[in-house]
């Protein structure tokens, strides 16, 4: 049986059938050229590009016609996090320039686990948990791109892409009906062991004590087939991924060239890849201090308000180091290059004012949580570190919902409670002796008033009769409030 026939049989069994060859490319290549002819140059200038296959040809393709671009998201959690923002903003810039985008959730590959960059095997995934995560991520991705469009429009930036064209996919759609026999005939017969074994992620694991499972070893082929499937059925010509995904992206380009029987071209690794498709990798971000980007005290910074409050999200960006802030403004906001330059000049004249960090925090919080979320976060910041202003109790509770710095108690446990005991029990200070030491040095506050000695929290201390702000030192804050009765 010829491979092309096997491909056709598999494609017909899949949820979305193959597009006839004559029509397949017309969906991408006959459309009008997008409005932004310098998109690739702009992506490179803003810092999105670590590497790309045939960059000159890629730039020309983006100028010539509408392309379809995809990036993969692993369903290892039910929410997107700050670490995803680099891919998401890269995709959004393609979308804004008039290209089609496909955020792809690894509903199938997530069951196996990507071995890239890992020294040991992942724990086996729970199928029902992965399914729930896929559903949550699909909703989260649609919400992000809807919010990003509003964020752009609020800044007078028109988007050429149409949100109704947004296709969020799970690769389980096509892998679930792909038998092992089909896989070996269609994909395995075109995979070359020397190429697969030479990948750094494979070589590292093979020399380790625990070695590498066949499941992990085959992961690169499943990802390669994703690119081929999206190319054949949706006219997808560009894959975006982190720089650690370069080998997997090239595997997809090689598979497309072989299965399509097209005239292939050589890439820097001297393998034959598709002449019609491209790969683009983004840099792996770390902070100036060497920490992994998107982590706060070792914990992920989530885009879901139930996991990370708008206030905590805002504070993460406020704490950006000076060496990173300009880079982040270019990557995670739509602020123009000229305005970023102006912001940085003002910031560098008075770094202690953290002007650039405040702009970054405001922009990214509005991008993710919209204007209302940004305003709540800014008000909560003033409440915590300045004055309450006109912020209501409901706004405080909303801005800090899910944040460990907000503790809601029954009236009997709050009114009359010793202040230093509250601070100790809820993690504001390590001990009562630390609270007493801060009190003596005028470093302990209730509603920004100094508390020198321990005392009971009175009803008069509660703002609006509902909450009080306790602060230890300059930046450790706890909001204690009354829990609403059922």
Overall mean confidence score, pLDDT: 86
What is the name of the CATH architecture of the largest domain?
Answer: 3-Layer(aba) Sandwich
CATH superfamily of the largest domain: HUPs
What is the tally of helical segments?
22
CATH topology of the largest domain: Rossmann fold
Helical amount among residues, as a percent range? 40-55%
Explain this structure:
- With 486 residues, the protein is an alpha/beta fold.
- It folds into three domains: 280 residues, HUPs (Rossmann fold); 96 residues, Tyrosyl-Transfer RNA Synthetase, CATH 1.10.240.10; 77 residues, Roll (Structural Genomics Hypothetical 15.5 Kd Protein In mrcA-pckA Intergenic Region, Chain A), CATH 3.10.290.
- It is 48% helix and 12% strand.
- It contains 22 helices and 15 strands.
- A six-stranded mixed β-sheet has the order 1-8-5-2-3-4, sandwiched between helices. It has a five-stranded mixed β-sheet with strand order 11-15-14-12-13.
- Helix 13 packs across helix 14 and helix 16 packs across helix 18.
- The longest helix has 31 residues.
- The chain is elongated and about 80 Å long.
- The N terminus is likely disordered.
Characteristic terms for this protein:
Structural Genomics Hypothetical 15.5 Kd Protein In mrcA-pckA Intergenic Region, Chain A; 486 residues; disordered N terminus; five-stranded mixed β-sheet; alpha/beta; Tyrosyl-Transfer RNA Synthetase; Rossmann fold
Summarize the structure.
It contains 22 helices and 15 strands. It has 486 residues and is an alpha/beta fold.
């Amino acid at each position: 049986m010829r491979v092309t026939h096997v491909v056709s049989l598999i494609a017909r069994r899949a949820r979305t059938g193959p597009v006839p060859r004559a029509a397949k490319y017309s969906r991408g290549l006959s459309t009008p050229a997008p409005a932004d002819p310098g998109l690739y140059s702009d992506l490179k200038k803003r810092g999105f590009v670590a590497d790309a296959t045939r960059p000159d040809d890629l730039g020309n393709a983006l100028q010539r016609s509408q392309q379809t671009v995809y990036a993969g998201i692993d369903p290892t959690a039910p929410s997107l996090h700050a670490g995803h923002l680099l891919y998401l903003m890269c995709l959004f810039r393609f979308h804004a320039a008039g290209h089609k985008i496909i955020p792809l959730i690894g509903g199938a590959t997530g069951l196996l686990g990507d071995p890239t960059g890992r020294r040991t095997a992942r724990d086996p995934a729970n199928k029902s948990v992965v399914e729930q995560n896929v559903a949550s991520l699909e909703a989260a991705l649609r919400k992000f791109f809807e919010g990003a469009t509003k964020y752009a429009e609020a800044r007078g930036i028109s988007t050429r892409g149409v949100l109704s064209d947004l296709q969020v996919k799970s690769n389980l759609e096509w892998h679930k009906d792909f038998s092992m026999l089909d896989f070996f005939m269609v994909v395995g017969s075109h995979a070359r062991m020397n190429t697969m074994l030479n990948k750094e992620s494979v070589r590292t694991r093979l020399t380790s004590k625990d070695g590498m499972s066949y499941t992990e070893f085959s992961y690169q082929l499943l990802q390669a087939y994703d690119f081929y499937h999206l190319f054949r059925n949706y006219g997808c010509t560009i894959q975006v991924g982190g720089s650690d995904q370069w080998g997997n992206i090239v595997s997809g380009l090689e598979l497309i060239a072989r299965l399509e029987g097209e005239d292939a071209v050589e890439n820097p690794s001297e393998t034959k890849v598709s002449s019609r498709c491209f790969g683009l990798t983004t840099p792996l971000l770390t902070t100036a201090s060497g920490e992994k980007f998107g982590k706060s005290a070792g914990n992920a910074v989530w885009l879901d308000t139930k996991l990370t409050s708008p206030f905590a999200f805002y504070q993460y960006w406020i704490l950006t180091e000076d060496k990173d802030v300009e880079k982040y403004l270019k990557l995670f906001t739509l602020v123009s290059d000229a305005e970023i330059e102006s912001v940085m000049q003002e910031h560098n004249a008075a770094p202690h004012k953290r002007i650039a960090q405040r702009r970054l925090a405001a922009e990214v919080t509005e991008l993710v949580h919209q204007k209302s979320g940004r305003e709540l976060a800014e008000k909560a910041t003033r409440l915590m570190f300045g004055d309450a202003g006109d912020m209501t109790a409901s706004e405080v509770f909303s801005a800090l919902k899910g944040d460990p710095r907000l503790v809601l108690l029954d009236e009997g446990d709050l009114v009359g409670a010793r202040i230093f005991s509250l601070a100790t029990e809820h993690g504001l200070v390590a001990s009562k002796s630390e609270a007493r030491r801060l009190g003596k040095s005028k470093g302990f506050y209730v509603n920004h008033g100094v508390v020198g000695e321990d005392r009971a929290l009175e009803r008069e201390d509660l703002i609006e009769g509902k909450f009080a702000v306790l602060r230890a030192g300059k930046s450790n804050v706890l909001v204690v409030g009354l829990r609403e009765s059922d």
